[in-house]
Amino acid sequence: MPARNDIEKSSAAEPVSGGCLGGGGGGLCCSWVVVVASFLANAVMYGVSWSAGVFYDVFAQEFDTGSGLTALMTSLNTALMYGAGKLSLLLIA
Fold first, then answer.
1. Residues 37-58: what's their mean pLDDT?
2. pTM value?
3. What is the CA radius of gyration of the chain?
């Protein structure tokens, strides 16, 4: 069995060659992949939430509801989006 010092020396973090996705760059590529993915996720999330007004008449006709209930449905979508942000903050912390 190797001595403890040998294990600590052998398990030292060494830079991994190849970078992100098999290319060079030392992780710079991975950073940009995360940035682009986050941007696209936010664009879809806000796009769906804030475009609910465009589909307001369609929702009212499809579900055969009045204006109050249809407005409640579209506003709950936005409220749940922001509420989920607060919940995720509590889960992370």
1. 88
2. 0.52
3. 24
